[in-house]
Amino acid sequence: MPREERVFSICDAVIDIIAALFSISSKELRNPSRSTADIARVRQIAMYVAHVTLALSMRDVGAGFGRDRTTVLYACHQIEDMRDDLEFDRIVQTAERVISAAFGISDEDANEAGR
């Protein structure tokens, strides 16, 4: 499978999994226009997890989510800043664990990759 197709496939899977995790429509996460703040935040978490947990470049995540690389950069900064809140951090950790499990990434693999 060509690299670009693989990236789109991975991002599609992340979108579907995160949408199910947060009980929202994956269609809403894929919507190219602006969304409600809640939907946008879930999309930011999905982009963050795709970048951090799956080690996709911001450019690849942007392409896979139909967004620009700078949008992914902004999302990652937002999520990192919000992780100081323990409840929010637990939500992000759950998303990271679910994505890791879905893609067969063990805690040991993640630690070796510096994630």
TrEMBL record:
Domain of life: Bacteria
Pfam family, one: Bac_DnaA_C
InterPro entries: DnaA_C, Trp_repressor/repl_initiator
Chromosomal replication initiator DnaA C-terminal domain boundaries: 10-79
SUPFAM superfamilies assigned to the protein according to its UniProt record, in alphabetical order: TrpR-like (SSF48295)
Name of this protein: Chromosomal replication initiator DnaA
